[in-house]
Design goal:
six-stranded mixed beta sheet; 8 helices; Nucleotidyltransferase, domain 5; 27% strand; five-stranded mixed beta sheet; alpha/beta; 30% helix; 230 residues
């Protein structure tokens, strides 16, 4: 029997899931009116107790590493690292966009996953289906939305939280993945995570959110030519 704790905190609403013996058995959504840091530990404890899984019996933790909410990602990743270190269980970090690609319609073959990066910028990563698996075709990047979206190839599918933000720039020939498939599911993180090996101890300590830019405070300080206190 394997028990996997799943943490997804890239979006406004965090999620905690538990997979037992190869299947997700429960998903709890955190209160979107409160901070992830306030609810996450208590929700993890509640989920494990509900299925009589002691922390020492957790095989590993799967955590989404972004891109997404800066604060949410840091809370989720720090919590996952602390749990894995304290219990000695495995840790696997999943790219949020890979989980979103997993939710594309069966008929889709090419997919762009996008998210808002603020100031007219967006996160973009292209994926292609190979058999039953979605594979990234390029590195995640931040690009100007007004330059990239109007040139999206006709017939390509678009997904991710950026679809709603930049809908006015998306050509009518593109196919939009419907909600709620544009946000990562716990089930998708688990499906993608099963294809990866756990992090080594050194990789666990080095793990950081996949964000490509600093927090809002860091960005503002950079523009003003000053540094934040360490």
């Amino acid at each position: 029997m394997e028990n996997w704790l799943i943490l997804e905190t890239s979006g406004r609403v965090g999620q905690v899931g538990l997979a037992c013996n190869g299947a997700v058995v429960t998903v709890c959504r955190l209160d979107d009116r409160r901070r992830h840091a306030r609810d996450l530990a208590a929700t993890v404890e509640q989920v494990l107790q509900s299925y009589s899984v002691a922390p020492a019996k957790v095989t590993g933790v799967l955590v989404g590493r972004g891109p997404g909410s800066y604060t949410g990602l840091r809370v989720g990743i720090i919590s996952a690292k602390a749990f894995a270190y304290a219990t000695g269980c495995h840790l696997i970090a999943i790219d949020t966009f890979a989980a979103i690609a997993e939710q594309a319609p069966a008929e889709a073959e090419q997919l762009w996953v996008i998210a808002d990066a603020l100031q007219g910028q967006m996160y973009l990563q292209p994926f292609a289906r190979q058999g039953t698996v979605w594979l990234a075709q390029d590195e995640l990047r931040i690009v100007p939305a007004e330059r990239w979206l109007p040139s999206a190839p006709p017939g390509i599918y678009l997904s991710g939280p950026g679809v709603a933000v930049y809908a006015h720039l998306i050509p009518s020939e593109c196919m939009l993945v419907p909600q709620p498939n544009r946000e990562p599911w716990v089930q998708s993180l688990f499906a993608v995570g099963r294809r990866f090996s756990p992090l080594t101890r050194a990789e666990l300590f080095a793990l950081e959110p996949l964000y490509l830019r600093g927090s809002s405070a860091e960005e503002k300080a950079k523009c003003e030519g000053r540094s934040l206190p360490s």
